[in-house]
């Protein structure tokens, strides 16, 4: 993103950390980017947003409805940026201002053999649905930042 390109906020809202609320989030995000992406790319963004939101609900907040998940959708230049923020614990030691280290890549064969836990597909799936993704923990907040270029792949 160019620093000279002004960002325009398309949506900003919070939802309670209740499983199922990820559907509301993906619907609201899809409405906020309507007409800015082809339908297949909107579907990919919706999948990534739903997974990131579900991770925030389950892992960040442990399903505690009193802890809201914050969602922002911003357009800056040709990029649509969606952030999903929870108040979950830092996922790594040390300076939480840096992006989180990548988890082990899921391997279906190893999972079926019991060498990897059956879960753990979330960030892998998200990374393959959007054009860019990073995860940052800062000031007691854990944010997944999803980037989708409006210009295409």
What does this entry look like structurally?
The protein has 153 residues and is α+β, with helices and mostly antiparallel strands. It has one domain (7-149): 2-Layer Sandwich (Heat Shock Protein 90). Helices cover 31% and strands 27% of the residues. It contains four helices and five strands. It has a five-stranded antiparallel sheet, covered by helices on one side. A hairpin with a 2-residue loop joins β4 (132-138) and β5 (141-149).
In short:
The chain is an alpha+beta fold and 153 residues long. 31% of the residues lie in helices and 27% in strands. Mean pLDDT is 82; it is low at 90-100.
Helix and strand topology:
Layout: E1 7-15, H1 21-32, H2 39-60, E2 69-76, E3 79-86, H3 108-112, H4 122-129, E4 132-138, E5 141-149
Antiparallel strand pairs: 1-2, 2-3, 3-5, 4-5
Strand order of the largest sheet: 1-2-3-5-4
Instruction: Quickly name the level 1 CATH class.
Output: Alpha Beta
Number of strands: 5
Q: Stretches where pLDDT falls below 50 for ≥5 residues?
A: 90-100
* The named CATH superfamily: Histidine kinase-like ATPase, C-terminal domain
Give the helix proportion (percent range): 25-40%
Q: What is the CATH architecture assignment? A: 2-Layer Sandwich
Our Rg estimate from Cα atoms comes to 16 Å
Q: How do the helices and strands follow one another from N- to C-terminus? A: EHHEEHHEE
Strand content: 25-35%
Shape: globular
- The name CATH uses for the topology is Heat Shock Protein 90
Structurally, the number of domains stands at: 1
Secondary-structure content class: alpha+beta
Number of helices: 4
Largest sheet: 5 strands, antiparallel
Overall mean pLDDT: 82
The N- and C-terminal alpha carbons lie at a distance of: 16 Å
């Amino acid at each position: 993103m160019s620093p000279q390109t002004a960002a325009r906020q398309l949506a900003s809202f919070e939802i309670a950390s209740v499983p199922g609320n990820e559907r509301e989030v993906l619907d609201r995000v899809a409405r906020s980017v309507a007409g800015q992406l082809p339908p297949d790319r909107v579907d990919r963004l919706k999948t990534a947003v739903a997974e990131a939101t579900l991770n925030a609900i389950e892992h960040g907040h442990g399903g505690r409805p009193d802890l809201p998940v914050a969602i922002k959708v911003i357009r800056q230049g040709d990029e649509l940026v969606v952030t999903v923020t929870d108040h979950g614990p830092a996922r790594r030691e040390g300076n939480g201002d840096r992006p989180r280290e990548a988890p082990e890549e899921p391997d279906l064969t190893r999972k079926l053999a019991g060498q990897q836990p059956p879960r753990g597909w979330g960030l892998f799936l998200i990374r393959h649905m959007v054009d860019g993704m990073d995860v940052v923990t800062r000031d007691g907040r854990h944010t997944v930042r999803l980037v989708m270029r409006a210009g295409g792949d």
